[in-house]
Amino acid sequence: MNYKKIYNGTILTPHRTIKEGCVIVSDDKIVEVSEKNIHIDGALEIDARGKYIAPGFIDIHVHGGGGHDFMDNTLDAFLGIAQTHATYGTTALMPTTLSCEKQDLLATIKLYEQATVLNSSGAQFIGLHIEGPYFSMAQKGAQDPRYIRNPDPKEYKEIIAQSSSIKRWSAAPELKGSLEFGQYLMSKNILPAIAHTDAIYEEVLEAFEKGYTHATHFYSCMSGVSRRNAYRYAGVVEAAYLIDAMTVEIIADGVHLPAPLLKLVYKIKGPERTALITDAMRAAGMP
Questions:
Q1: Residue 233: phi, psi to the nearest 5?
Q2: What pLDDT does 14 receive?
Q3: SS3 call for 195
Q4: What is the largest CA-CA distance in the chain?
Q5: If you placed Cys at 99, which of 84, 133, 135, 212 could pair as Cys (CB 3.0 to 4.6 Å)?
Q6: How much is the pTM?
Q7: pLDDT digit string (tens) for 94-153?
Q8: Are strands 231-233 and 274-277 parallel, antiparallel or unpaired?
Q9: What ranges do the domains of the chain cover?
Q10: Strand partners, 274
């Protein structure tokens, strides 16, 4: 058997941290986690030098890194991003698009299929995340307003027909046609997610029943409590908290969400319904 020992690091487990711990790997499987430095004859030894020892990060929302963006639509971009994120501990990621013209999106999908075959040393690609273009103009954020539009059945059916690699699609559920769009996504085993939206609680609740069970970059570019015609309405943020089964993803960098909000998300949604993401762009990993 081939053994690998990683020692002298802080091990992160689901239950606690182990300082100056040791992990033993045999044939690509973890066989022991210990507080002691275990000796194994012939093992490849890696000194963690006090750094963290943790499972590989799985990032379900990535736009770019290493000077590249997936929508550069080149193989170099796809492979460069995968390599960059692997360098920082990400072992699997979901390439994510931006609002664009249909032909640009089709080109990205085609390149994803090609890059997946060639990606042998970077973070594994685990499916495409289509972000946009069906968004609220009031919550567009960094999305290019030239391409924001309502769901078009002819358009999205053509796009989905091109590839089985699309795993999630983020949209604003309050738009005309969005509920039908969500149902169509569900019929194709694609996750509808709520993003860049100005919806109120009642609209989110209806959307949840149609398949929109996940909130993209929670808090960012989505409505909270609003006042309309002298009445207050709960928004997407409040809806995500009130709908117990809804999952959320957060950019836990302390900037997009400060510590108090990170604690609130953890307290209400819990780790079972919260995913950490980077939402990284091309500057990630650059000097």
A1: -130, 140
A2: 86
A3: coil
A4: 75
A5: 133
A6: 0.92
A7: 999 999 999 999 999 999 999 999 999 999 999 999 999 999 999 999 999 999 999 999
A8: unpaired
A9: 3-53, 57-277
A10: 248
Q: Find out whether 139 and 66 touch, Cβ atoms under 8 Å.
A: no
Residue with tokens 């590249």: 68
Section 163-179 average pLDDT: 98
Q: Where are the alpha helices (DSSP H) in 47-131?
A: 75-87, 102-118
Q: What is the pLDDT of residues 25-47, one digit of tens each?
A: 998 899 999 999 999 999 999 99
Q: What pLDDT score does 51 carry?
A: 94
Enter the tokens of residue 171: 């949209």
Q: What are the tokens at 234?
A: 């709960």
Task: Reduce the DSSP state of residue 223 to 3 states and report it.
Answer: coil
DSSP structural state of residue 2: -
Query: Active-site residue numbers?
Result: 279
pLDDT (0 to 100) of residue 1: 78
Quick one: how far is CA 113 from the chain centroid? 19
Residue 101: burial class (beta carbons within 10 Å; 0-12, 13-18, 19+): exposed
The token pair that represents 203 in the structure block: 């609209």
> 57-277: which CATH number, 3.20.20.140, 3.50.50.60, 3.10.180.10, 3.30.1300.10?
3.20.20.140
Mean pLDDT of the chain, nearest integer: 97
